[in-house]
Known about the structure:
This protein is an alpha+beta fold. The chain has one domain. It has helices spanning 2-66, 121-124; strands at residues 87-93, 97-104, 112-120, 133-142, 154-156, 159-161, 166-168. The strands form 2 sheets. A 5-stranded antiparallel β-sheet has the order 1-2-3-4-7. Strands 5-6 form a two-stranded antiparallel sheet. A hairpin with a 2-residue loop joins strand 5 (154-156) and strand 6. The chain is elongated, with a radius of gyration of 27 Å. 23% of the residues are buried.
Amino acid sequence: MSQQHYKSNSIAYKGYGCLLLLMLFGIIVAIERPSFLRQAGKAKQVEPKQYVRSMNRVQHAHFAEKGAFATSVNALEMGIKTETANCKYSVIATKKTAFNYGLSKKKDLKSCVGGVFVVHEKEVLPNVVKDEIITISILCQSDSPGTIEPAEPTYQNGKLICGQGTTEVTK
């Protein structure tokens, strides 16, 4: 009979062990969840930067090959969608400039804009022997999250400058 009593205590002890294990798991989840959510938010924020950075690179190549910028996302022939769950992507191009947009569709996500500019090489590298036409680019991210189109970057006095309310993305 004492053996049955011992088994009964053992079952009760195992029940408390499961409860303690569940409580410990709950505490770990409570501690790690904000970190996990921040990482998920960072992953969403990477998308517009990567897309627009890639669009800038393809604009360089497109200009070098065809002597003009692509005038649409599809004309870039990158195979990317013009719209994802997070952003809308678009292009505005002139003869001397291309602006590539990653416009946020979510209030908690920052938008990006890239600018690719046609310049004389001597403006950027004054010591070059031959003054050729080249393209240079910049990637800017809005300072605040939201769905408002970011201000376009500019090229002034030999320097690329992000528009008001945006900051250059250097990584």
